[in-house]
Amino acid sequence: MKKNNRSTFAGVILNCRIFLKAAKVTLCVVMLAGFNACTKQIKLDDTTSSTELTFAKASVLKGPITDERAEWKQKKHPHWIFSDDFETTDPFVGNGRYFEYDDNGGDFIPMDGVGVNGSRGMRVKWQAGEVSAGGLSLGFGRQTDPYMDQGIRSRDNFREIYYRIYLKMQAGWIGNPVKLSRATILAKNDWSQAMIAHLWQGNGDALGIDPVSGTDSNGVVVTNGYNDFANFKWLGFKSGSTPIFDASHADKWYCIESHVKLNDKGKSNGIQEFWIDGRLEARSDNLNFVSSYTAYGINVIFFENYWNAGSPQDQERYFDNIVVSTKRIGF
Is the separation of the CB atoms in 152 and 82 below 8 Å? Predict the structure, then answer.
């Protein structure tokens, strides 16, 4: 996400136009911040000049207006664990970056002009019938295996995280692609999982949450390897309500933020919830993710483009502005 030329006032994004009519000057300010429409006339001085303020519903997403990764590197967001606006040309796999990147033969790649506000973002392309279109694997915090450790807060056990991604489907989009992301604890070198917080297909064209425990009641990890469904304990699916994958919601950016908090020892007070454009979509706050397990915290997020039944047509979607944080992120 690159810098743009919009000015800000009191946290509100402004576009300004000035009209000259003889001795009268009218300043029309259109505020793109989701306000209801109204108009006010304000006297500027003792002449006939006035200011006309028009508050209109936003026609564009309230996206970030700065180079987020640069700000993170400058330590302007100390609660951020990781940030990627895809403006860099650095390799995807390496220190401070991801531990795996699958471009699926060029289907999942960074491209100029496809990101928020015309910036650089990630293009995901499915061919008709294609199941997997690539993905990104991010490791952070303490790891069991150096393979996942790219130096991102490597001494920390994270028991609570927030992560955000901007998502857009191209015009003419059809179908719910099932997989989007999952936060997990990789607890052993064989990728056995102590818990998973899936953010994936909800009801109809919506997203939903589907939390999983991978431990027994004593906090012992019982899964063997990755995606060991036979030993998963499913904690309760909940669907969101916004049908972001239907045709009327295509060609628009959505800010999707997820929150995952592990339970305290011996309690069922873990949390999984997510928001779309700041609106709460689904929440569970009585989860026993890991019982008394404490060896590792949440240490991996998978950003996925996986369509179980295959895409019904050739089509694209786009990612931008990923942030992982210990506090709410927002737009």
Answer: yes
User: Tens of pLDDT along 280-292?
Assistant: 999 999 999 999 9
- Please tell me the pTM assigned to this model: 0.81
C-alpha 331/C-alpha 322 separation (Å) is 11
Task: Give CA torsion, residues 171, 245, 261, 133, to 10 deg.
Answer: -70
Query: Three-state DSSP class for 71?
Result: helix
> Which residues sit opposite 23 in a β-bridge?
none
Which two three-digit tokens encode residue 143?
A: 């790891």
DSSP 14-63: EEEEEEEETTEEEEEEEEESSPPPEEEEEE-SSSS-EEEEEEE--SS---
Contact between 290 and 163 under an 8 Å Cβ cutoff? The reply is no
Handedness of CA 266, 196, 143, 95 (dihedral sign): negative
Instruction: Name the phi and psi angles at 230, rounded to 5.
Output: -60, -25
